[in-house]
Description:
Layout: H1 2-8, H2 19-59, H3 65-69, H4 71-77, H5 88-104, H6 107-115, H7 121-130, H8 142-149, H9 156-164, H10 172-177, E1 180-182, E2 188-190, H11 198-229, H12 232-243, H13 250-261, H14 266-273, H15 287-298, H16 300-311, H17 316-323, H18 328-356, H19 360-365, H20 373-382, H21 387-419
Antiparallel strand pairs: 1-2
Family: Belongs to the binding-protein-dependent transport system permease family. CysTW subfamily.
Keywords: Cell membrane, Membrane, Transmembrane, Transmembrane helix, Transport
Domain ABC transmembrane type-1: 202-408
Amino acid sequence: MSETMTMNAPLTAADGESLKVKLARERRNKQLKAIALVAPLALFLLLTFLVPIAMLLKRSVDNPEVITYLPQTSAEIASWDRRGLPSEAVFAAMARDLTVAKEQKTVSEISKRLNMDISGFRSLIQRSARKMPLEVAAGESVRDQFIAMDERWGDPDHWHVIAKNAKSWTPYYLYSSLDLRETKAGTPELAPEEERAFLSIFGRTLWMSMWITLISVLLGYPIAYWLANLPARKSNLLMILVLLPFWTSVLVRVASWIVLLQQEGLINSALMGLGIIGEPLQLAFNRTGVYIAMVHILLPFVILPAYSVMKSIPPTYMRAAISLGDHPFAAFWKIYFPQTVAGVAAGALLVFIMCMGYYITPALLGGPQEQMVSYYVAFYTNVTINWGMAAALGSLLLVATMTLYAVYSKLVGANKLSLG
């Protein structure tokens, strides 16, 4: 009986404390220490990665100008039924808001935003603001004074634009990035053909990225295979040549390619000296030059992941397949190649994503028809100071990147299951 009671009693440590409680406390302390070690890195990633992305996404739909600088107009026009012209109260609110905007020197912010929807709205707002405050006599209509000031105030389309933008968010920038426009009913429709630009730019970006990735894989795979099957000493020596471009600035490499590829450059001079060509080839400032330079810059990003995977494949697999009567090429295709797909796919994905965001190489080595989406992100950021359009284009690039990564993860997961 006493032995049974002893076996059922809870285990205790030397100090008499329950062993289960003590182990739970030790486990909790280890978890807290692990969290404390990871916390600085998590905070760093939050501040430098997640917060900027969240700000980018917010900025792509942010629309503060009208609701901030025309607050009374925004409040009054919310009850407008969008038929005919707004009420007298809306015109009176606009007069008060423009008076305040004139005093606070914020007219340019309002006019710049509204001019994106209707060309000429900038001059309308600025001209009207200069005539503020209005002197309204008893029994006189503010609406009539606005229309007498400029007949465009009698156009309902201008008031539709103000009503549409009298809220803190807008799909305008995202629609514009996809060559869409918002109808009066609030639904998107494709812009007229002569106004479309960004769909072709996104198509060009994807097309060029696809070809650069394909060329990089076709060149990088045999190089990685060769390095993986060389003796370690020779392989390590040649790997330095693969890593050497990382120690040189991208700008320096692009400038070097300009020197090499221009009509009087070293490549054309050598080909003409050998009698291969009779006149210089146009290799720079076109798509050919962009492809050559970007493949040179991005090739290591295919070689390194492929090499790391190939190096881990035992050579006995191929020898065993050949010894069992399989042709060397068939053994390579059925045994060796499927095991390298994950590394090659990772390198291809990395190259494709980097291509979509490349800016310097197409800007320096390409012509107008070689500029990719990143060029226009920089244009709207640095030249026109249109943060909304820059953020919208950047957000679409982010969505494309995440979509590619999701597809890659699914394909790699399916490949692992098939190999398993």
